[in-house]
Amino acid sequence: MPFPSQLEWNRNFQLPQSGLSSLIFIALFASFLLAGLVSLPLSAGTDAFFPEDNPRQLPPLEESISKKGREKAEALANYALGYRDLKKDRRFSKEVMDRLIHAVEKDPYATAPLKLLWAKWTTNGKPSDLVKALLPIAKAHPRAADLNTLVANSLRVMKKNDEAIDLLEASAEALDLGEDCKAPLNKQIEVVQALSELYVAAKRWDDGEELFEDFLENGEVAKSYLARLEAAKFFAECADQGPDGFFAGWSKRRRRKRLEENLLALEKIAGDGDVSVSALRRTIPILKRYSMPDRAERMVFARLLSHPKDLSTYLVLASMYDDFRRYADATRVWRKVADYADGSKLSLAWRMVFGRPLVVPWLPRYKQGLAAMKQGWSKEALRAFDWCAIASPGNPAVILQTAYVYVDDCKYLKALRIMRRLKGKDPDVDFLRAVCLDYLERPDEAFEAMRLAEEGFAALAEKKKGAGAPDNFWWVYVLIGLKVDARDKIESIARRFIDSDPDDPVWNNFLGYMFADWNVHLDEAKKMITKALKKEPESAAYLDSMAWVLYRKGKFDEALDYIEEAVEKDSPLPDAVILDHAGDINAALGHRAEAIKLWKRALATYSDDLDYAATRAKLLAAEKAEGR
Question: Based on CB atoms within 10 Å of each CB, which residue in 175, 317, 355, 390 is the most buried?
Fold first, then answer.
């Protein structure tokens, strides 16, 4: 895309603060030329006007300047005057828009008015206005690459992909992409990038493949990193999403081969030449998709060898290690960046790599702490977060991450203490507080913290679509709920997941087992556990659940078959709860000696879920009945 994305414009667009006077002067001078208010000496080799008595007359201005020159001058004048009004009023008035559009009409190859029109587009969120004004101009000038890609991208936002493709195909044909193309390479790549993305969206794989086959025939294009990058992006999508059918396997393998060819070319160009950091950064997601960390590392190292002090390259390297979850390496590079980066240079490098401003100067140190925490280096993580806390006292993100480090280090009281510094309501904080309280065996307080966290996540979900509790939140809620016997809450959570996926084996087994354990809804419990076993018939846990619900229903013989199979599947070290259930079922059938043996094995096996006192009481009663 030749212009920044909507997000980038919203962040970065601002009118320049200098140079307006000279631009207005040039525009007005161009306007005076057009109006004939200024005359120029037209004889070669003289700077003086002809004497008044000279009979020779100057030709009319219209004859002394070509039509193309007059149009460019008029375009410049309209752009400059529109820019003047925009800077003065700080808004896109109708007069400003008319001048900018008129500037594009007169000079479709000018990029400055297009950038301002793109800014207006992103400000009001109405691409239809832009398309209505510029589409006829784009169709009339297919060789104007910037104009055509801008209009095509606007059409794509409007879900008019077919029109966008038609427009860019006409532009590609007019530019004569390939061996004999005379257009600048960067303009060719802009058109190909936009067109290939549209082909991907429309799943027109053959058209995209033909586009790159013709495009890469040009020797200059084939040596271009950006051109190869666009080809690699297309073939990556093509290899993953390509058509299914009789020849799908062969087709995808062929396109995967084309992807590999372009990746090899990228690696070679990166090793031989000077590839920009932004281009390297755009390459990493493709390598990440196919788990190629070594290749990504080689490409970044190649630039680092030729630019050993370039801060932006170190940022790419640190970010790459984060992407590939190589947190030890990421920690080291973020540490280097944080230790040696100059403030102004860091801001410039950050924007260059990530396309956005550096929010706070201590962000690399914060990134160092996150990477160290994920690596399990708690001391380094704490040092990094302590540094951030000094730079930004009371920062909630820093306090919360410090608390996470303490939790990972099993220092729950320290985590609770540091979280007291946080002001206001935050469901993440309540959730983390609940985890700490649960580990400290304060289940009532933990359950109340979970209730507050649930309310907080629900409020966030209402404000921001898609926001909500993390994946593990509900399991933690259920486990804490079990400790306080909150049966209604446990059931409501489980039913929520079962309603969204009626055949989910985990939640069906969980709620079915809980019903059996509570000795309620036994028929429904059996149906739920049957669904779970249908999905995973070899699961010892699910076989135990079925045995337990049959035991509750008084069907001891059937229960015995399931529990024996569960013990066998879970051997050689069966779970203590399964052994305890096997003892209960055998006792119900009068197999007291076998029950005693199973209960003893259960007591000798560690489990967080077994009630050892209850099992010991059953064992003692059985041994007494046996006269032992």
Answer: 317
Region of residue 521 (phi > 0: left; psi between -120 and 50: alpha; otherwise: beta): left
Name the band, by pLDDT with cuts 50, 70 and 90, for residue 65. low
Rounded CA gap, 20 and 4, in Å?
A: 23
Answer yes or no: are the C-beta atoms of 545 and 565 closer than 8 Å: no
Residue 187 has which token pair? Answer: 């303009």
**Helix (H), strand (E) counts: the chain:** 34, 0
- Paired tokens of 459: 């409020």
Buried b (16+ CB within 10 A) or exposed e, 316-330: bbbbbbbbbebbebb
Which one-letter DSSP state was computed for residue 520? -
- Phi, psi (5° rounding) for residue 545? -60, -45
Torsion of CA 337, 341, 345, 350, to 10 degrees: 30
Gap between the Cα atoms of 362 and 347, Å rounded: 11
Average of pLDDT values for 568-583? 94
Which residue in 148, 106, 102, 97 sits closest to 126, CA to CA? 97
CB atoms within 10 A of CB 393: 10
Amino acid identity of 298?
R
Q: What angle do CA 476, 434, 496 make, to 5 degrees?
A: 35
Residues 505-558 have pLDDT tens digits of 999 999 999 999 999 999 999 999 999 999 999 999 999 999 999 999 999 999
Cis peptide before 572 (omega within 30 of 0): yes
CA 604 to chain centre: 48
Task: Name the residue among 559, 604, 605, 603 with its Cα closest to residue 582.
Answer: 559
Q: Whose CA is closest to 233, among 262, 204, 191?
A: 262
Spatial contact of 123 and 13, defined as CB atoms under 8 Å apart: no
| Cβ pair 577, 610 in contact under 8 A | yes
pTM of the model as a whole: 0.75
Q: In this structure, which amino acid lies at residue 32?
A: F
